[in-house]
Amino acid sequence: MSEDQLTPADRLGERMARLSHWYGRVLEALLLVACLLLLVMTLLIGADVLLRNIGMGGIAPSNEISEDIIYLLTLLAAPALLRHGQHIRVDIVLRAVPRGAGWIFEWIVDGLGLASCLIIAFYSARAALASYNAGSVSIKTLVTPEWWLLSALPLAFVALSLEMLFRMRRLALGPRAPRDDAVSTG
Question: Residue 90 — pLDDT band, cuts 50, 70, 90?
């Protein structure tokens, strides 16, 4: 079918499919960044242990940096894990009820997930902005602006919100049954 023969709904569907594809690519890039951060953390901890064991004192901020990396890993990976169905999911009820009821439950849970993500994005953005405006700093081994780490939280939850919308779209276009990704039973 040529572009001229497509209905507005078909055009919108094609645009949404392309947007979903490119958004998936962004999430894969975030996973790559998370992997690189994990490598950095591994090398940092290894170097710290080595330096301490050979009597050179270690790397003072290694624990603090490792903690920050773990936090960032979680936020960077969460949207992609949700997209791939690799998040924690308790689906025993979905497998016990009729397929149509399971599909409705999927909608309810996705709606609650979207609402939760938007609320967390909103309030975490307010917290990051308040920290920025107050000039708050985190004082441990390193002294850093507090908002640097706080700003990652609303960005991650906006990404999770977008993925929840794409999940809802896939649910609407798929069969009227619970999702088959990451199921615990057959």
Answer: confident
User: How long is the chain?
Assistant: 186
The sign one gets for the Cα dihedral 27, 28, 29, 33 is: positive
pTM strictly above 0.85: yes
Greater pLDDT, 48 or 184: 48
1, pLDDT greater than 70: no
Instruction: List CB contacts of 145: < 8 A, sequence separation 6 or more.
Output: 131, 132, 135, 136, 137, 138
Quickly tell me which residue has 């949207």 as its tokens. 79
Amino acid found at 2: S
What is the signed CA dihedral for 132, 137, 143, 149, rounded to 10 degrees? Answer: -50
Report the alpha-carbon distance of residue 24 to residue 1 in Å, rounded.
Answer: 26
Best CA proximity match to 157, nearest among 114, 126, 127: 114
Residue 144 burial by Cβ neighbours in a 10 Å radius (0-12, 13-18, 19+): middle
Q: Which amino acid is it at 109?
A: V
